[in-house]
Design brief:
Layout (H helix, E strand, L loop, with lengths): L2 H21 L3 H34 L3 H22 L6 H30 L2 H19 L4 H12 L38 H22 L24
Bound molecules: fe (ii) ion (2 copies).
One fe (ii) ion binds next to helix 1 and helix 2.
Length: about 240
Amino acid sequence: MNAIDLLRKQHDKVADLFDRFEKASKPAEKSEIFEEIAANLVAHDAIEREIFYPACEKKMGLTDLLGEALVEHGVVEFMLYRADENLGKEALDHHVTVLQEIVDHHVEEEEKEFFPRVEKAFSKALLEELGPKMWARFQEAIAADFRGPLAENLSQVLAGAMKTKPAKKPARKAPAKRMDAKAKTPKRGVRSRRHPRMHEVRRQRRAQRDFDGIRALAAGADLRCPRRKGGPLAPQVEPARG
Ligand SMILES: [Fe+2]
Ligand SMILES: [Fe+2]
């Protein structure tokens, strides 16, 4: 399947899920459908941001439509985060309605304005080549809990990024130190390494701080950097306790 057909198909699936959400009456059913919407949107965001949009930028430059699309993805992520905070509550409906309005606007611009330009700029062969790569990444992304990548992207957006990058995968476990059998000390020339989990612990602490920033924003805190009025949003919150 070519890249554009794949993206259109995913837009249709999300539209169907929004319809199902609207028709659902039980809170548990609504929560379940919302989680499906979120998983699909976060995985769709991954393939557009990581594969499709960079290919478009390479071929066509950072056009107004592409720049606006990237900003809109950040807004969608913020609404997904807020809706998820209201899972199981009455206010979930309001959040999903606003989320749908933003997604509908974004999809309409992509399908009616952006994709036709891409189809002119790209060869059919290139779109066919991108499709399977995007599909494979989508499968990988949708298999994971959407909340991790959502928090990661949103923290980057709040830190001022327009083009977010996926979190680095955890470092592979370091091989065991070669020990001298008698002395039980590392062999000469074998440098001691930090505990392999330290990197992961630091990454989790950073993610927690970013998450605190997002929560403070959701709670209505003024996150503007005091030295740069009107500058990019930067979390200014107390460190997490406990
Ligand atoms: Fe899209
Ligand atoms: Fe998009």
